[in-house]
Amino acid sequence: MERRRLGRTGHESSVLIYGAAALGDVTQDVADASVQEALDAGINHLDVAASYGDAELRLGPWMPRIRGDIFLATKTGDRDAEGAWASVNRSLERLQTDHVDLIQLHAVGDLDELDKVTARGGALESALRAVDEGLAGAVGITGHGDQAPSTHLEALRRHPFATVLTPMNVVLHQDAAFRSAYEELAAEIARQDAALMLIKTVARQNWPAPPGEHSTAEGHEYTTWYQPWDDQRTITAAVSWALSLPGVTGLATPGDVGLLGMVVNAERDRVDPDDGAQILGAEPAYSSPFVDMPI
Q1: Distance separating the N- and C-terminal Cα atoms of the chain
Q2: Can you name the residues that pair with 4 across neighbouring β-strands?
Q3: Cβ atoms 38, 259 nearer than 8 A
Q4: Could you give the CA distance from residue 272 to residue 75 in angstroms, rounded to a whole number?
Q5: Do residues 262 and 234 make contact, with C-beta atoms less than 8 angstroms apart?
Q6: Any idea which residues carry the catalytic annotation?
Q7: DSSP for 60-96?
Q8: Each residue of 139-174: pLDDT tens digit?
């Protein structure tokens, strides 16, 4: 699998980042099979979060064997310093390790959330403390929603985050305002020698809601909160296109163990990115995952 430098962290990261949200509600046996599949494919970057159900617990038994061979990232969704500090330490215990390579401020998708984490007494203080005390190697930021790229740009103006995990796919790129904000963000990430990672690459749309009802992520065939592409042709198109974008280090695999194999195949058998965009553009029911987001 191709590897790319993860910004100034210096890590040579696999272009597919294992999205451990897929492990939030599976048995240990299922988790073990999925993690092994990822490692066999050449994935060396695992991304989890405190809020992903039992995912940290599922990864924990692996750490004594593979910790020195992988880049381990987790996230805290707490907004205040006290809560974030507790979250980081709890994550280390659940992950059975004494440090992570990256601690990310999770789901910071608008300025209100950014204000909370960067304020005096906010979560950023504890993330930086974790680095100072050797519990984390670097600090990153993540988020989704229409305002994510502009929010992450403002975040980089306030603090030199080492990594940014932000949404982008073909249909989002077709929105002129979203594309402009993303491109400005990508340019600033490059200027700061940070790392640009993508989410929502294989999102097709939100789960359709019955008439008069709100969309929900419950009761569907995949554990992703959005409806994903789920055939090899469209997944290959989506992955090929995303990995062709300038400055992109990698993309997070979707949060369902059943989709991992097709994403791995897509990375290996990439198609021309323009062809990939045309393939997806011709598909029906392709829309932003941020329209009528599930409750």
Answers
A1: 36
A2: 13
A3: no
A4: 34
A5: no
A6: 52
A7: GGGHHHHGGGSEEEEEE---BHHHHHHHHHHHHHHHT
A8: 999 999 999 999 999 999 999 999 999 999 999 999
| Assigned CATH topology for domain 3-281 | TIM Barrel (3.20.20)
CB distance 164 to 196 below 8 Å = yes
Please name every residue paired with 80 in a beta bridge, in sequence order, or none if there are none: 122
Residues 6+ apart with CB under 8 A from 128: 139
Calpha distance 165→120 (Å, rounded): 23
CB atoms within 10 A of CB 214: 10
> Please, are residues 199 and 18 in contact by the beta-carbon 8 Å criterion?
no
* C-beta neighbour count of 128 within 10 angstroms: 15
Rg (CA), the chain: 18
Contacts for 111-120: CB closer than 8 Å, 24+ residues apart: 111/147, 111/151, 111/154, 113/79, 113/143, 113/151, 114/151, 114/154, 114/155, 114/158, 116/79, 116/80, 117/79, 118/155, 118/158, 118/159
Q: What is the pLDDT of residues 205-226, one digit of tens each?
A: 998 876 666 655 567 899 998 9
* Model confidence pLDDT, tens digit, residues 215-255: 555 678 999 989 999 999 999 999 999 999 999 999 999 99
Task: Report the 10 Å Cβ neighbour count for 76.
Answer: 26
Domain segments of the chain: what residues? 3-281
In 3D space, the residue among 140, 75, 153, 139 whose CA is nearest the CA of residue 110 turns out to be: 153
pLDDT, tens digit, 9 for 90 and up, residues 20-75: 999 999 999 999 999 999 999 999 999 999 999 999 999 999 999 999 999 999 99
